[in-house]
Amino acid sequence: MQLKIAAVHTRIRLGARRTNVKRLSDVVSKVIDKVDSVDLLVLPAYPLTGPIVGYYSDQKVPLLLKGYAERLSESEVQQSPTLMMVSRVAEEYGVHVLAGPIVERAGPRLYLTTIVVGPDGRLAGKYRKISLTQKELESGLTPGKEVLVFEVRGKDVRVGVFTDEDINYPEVVRALAYMGADVAIGTMLPFQTTFIKMRSEPGTGVLTLDVDHVVELLDVRSRENGMVSILVGGAVEGSNGLGLVAFMPTMIAEPETGVVKDKIMTYDDIDMPVIVEVERSPSRRLSEPLVRALRSLCRSSGRAEDQGEEEEL
């Protein structure tokens, strides 16, 4: 059965949780009204707070990360404004919701974590970003260790999750393919990376990344792994009415044809969804014996280094 995905291409205001909750609620409501039978709703990166690293002074970033950090567990939902909002949306509309990354606190550590919430409003999975940038490491964030592939209830389609910098590392998306993903979904707003040049738009000063380079990367990841890849961008507004400060297009790549040019979402398409329908990949059947072998090889033999960390799920 096909999986219908609606990726929300919208604006996020820096540090304005209430404004962002209201905007996202309004945009999601319009998307659900216009699009029939959505199975998976994808929200942009940092949906409530906006991005942090690279958007504030280096001295201020560690304090903001700690201040915005949320505990992501069913037993502490009240301590996570993002999980509360996403759970409400998922349950109200009966859809799976993918949102993140957000800053997660687990014991003494901070992660950049993307969450999946099921139609029952319960946390169904989370992915802690593996490929942290140098700036993120210097700011006190910890890299994750495991990729996430999940299946939407009632659909024989598996979804793999990645986050911005992961696109620069073939191993991350390849791991999703090995784990049986039929589609890879990631979020990206302009960020500081050694792999992709950041630039300012002439005349406006709005920050963006080298879009042609990002298109090439998404194209390659889709082709080499034989699966549809979706990159959800959006716009970042400054606090205190500073207007638009950063922008990243939303785009889709297909393994046979690469990035679909007429589906690239620009600033003119803000608050519009990208609709993608995905089927189970024929290559997945071929990968299943390999997946079983990898799982047996990677079986955990003890995780002493994780002592002191609170694990959920």
What are the main properties of this structure?
six-stranded mixed sheet; 17 strands; globular; alpha/beta; 27% helix; 313 residues
How would you describe this structure to a colleague?
With 313 residues, this protein is an alpha/beta fold. It has one domain (3-278): Nitrilase/N-carbamoyl-D-aminoacid amidohydrolase (4-Layer Sandwich), CATH 3.60.110.10. The protein is built from seven helices and 17 strands. It has helices spanning 17-34, 61-68, 81-93, 134-138, 170-178, 211-225, 282-297, and strands at 3-9, 11-13, 40-42, 96-106, 109-117, 123-128, 148-151, 158-163, 183-187, 198-200, 207-209, 228-232, 234-237, 244-248, 251-254, 258-259, 272-278. The strands form four sheets. A six-stranded mixed β-sheet has the order 6-5-4-3-1-17. A six-stranded mixed β-sheet has the order 7-8-9-12-15-16, with helices on one face. A three-stranded mixed β-sheet has the order 2-13-14. The longest helix has 18 residues, at 17-34. It is globular and about 50 Å long. The chain starts with a strand and ends in a 16-residue tail after the last helix. The relative contact order is 0.16. The model is unreliable at 300-307 (pLDDT under 50).
